[in-house]
Design goal:
Layout (H helix, E strand, L loop, with lengths): L4 E8 L6 H13 L4 E6 L12 H12 L5 E3 L2 H4 L6 H11 L3 E8 L1 H4 L7 H7 L2 E4 L7 H15 L3 E3 L9 H9 L10 H9 L9
Parallel strand pairs: 1-2, 1-4, 2-3, 4-5, 5-6
Helix pairs in contact: 2-9, 4-6
The structure holds adenosine-5'-triphosphate and magnesium ion (MG).
């Protein structure tokens, strides 16, 4: 029998990767029977000052996921010149691995605010979306209404990952570092070490 490999793609800046990303991946894996979660960090398309070098983001990501046999990393968006659209990342992977069944994993905030350059309708046409709740950014009613709207408008296949909300963001992590606060238990311990080692996210010296 032709059993397809099932892979969830998770795009993001991962500036830096935290346990919210990893728990979304792990829960998607478990609840939707995925063989693998593929983390795909974006390149520095926007010249936002606070987004650290892709090489360093990749190094932290690699350290964070190394001990999970279901987690993998793709540098395809960083390697590509110019903007990387999520739908193109997915389409490229589907073309390369026609026997794999792909899903796209994201946090619920992305359903409300797609990146400016992204074209979500093209992504919806490519893959089912597995969405992790982020109730600090929306209510459950708003999320249900958004999913219904996207289903109606684009025929999107969107399913909520059954998991507890994990109230962590990379913005929080960067703020904590700047304030000298502990990152224990909110990022992988190796990422804590990396952030110290590379002196990341510290406020500019005057
Ligand atoms: P930032 O605060 O810089 O925007 P972030 O924590 O939102 O960072 P991203 O790299 O922007 O992290 O997110 C990558 C993907 O992971 C997005 O789909 C986002 O919605 C999702 N995500 C991030 N944090 C969480 C979380 N705590 N729970 C569920 N999904 C999350
Ligand atoms: Mg974000």
């Amino acid at each position: 029998m032709d059993v397809k490999k099932r892979v969830g793609i998770m795009g993001g800046t991962f500036n830096p990767i935290h346990l919210g990303h990893m728990l979304a991946g792990e829960n998607a894996c478990e609840n939707f029977d995925l063989d693998e979660v593929l983390f795909v960090p974006s390149g520095n398309v926007e010249k936002k000052r606070e987004i650290i070098d892709p090489k360093i983001r990749i190094s932290l990501l690699g350290d964070a996921i190394e001990d999970n046999a279901h987690f993998a990393l793709s540098t395809q968006e960083v390697d590509r010149k110019g903007n990387a659209y999520s739908y193109r990342t997915v389409a490229d992977l589907k073309k390369k691995n026609p026997l794999t069944e792909y899903y796209y994993i994201c946090g619920a905030d992305r359903l409300f605010h797609w990146d400016r350059w992204d074209e979500p309708e093209k992504l919806f046409a490519e893959v089912p979306i597995l969405v992790a709740p982020r109730y600090n950014k929306h209510t459950d009613e708003e999320l249900q209404a958004k999913i219904a709207e996207l289903k109606e408008k684009y025929n999107a296949n969107i399913q909520i990952i059954p998991m507890s909300e994990v109230n962590i963001s990379s913005t929080d992590i960067r703020d904590k570092v700047a304030q000298g606060k502990s990152l224990r238990y909110i990022v992988h311990y190796r990422v804590v070490e990396d952030i110290k080692k590379y002196k990341l996210f510290l406020p500019d010296e005057e």
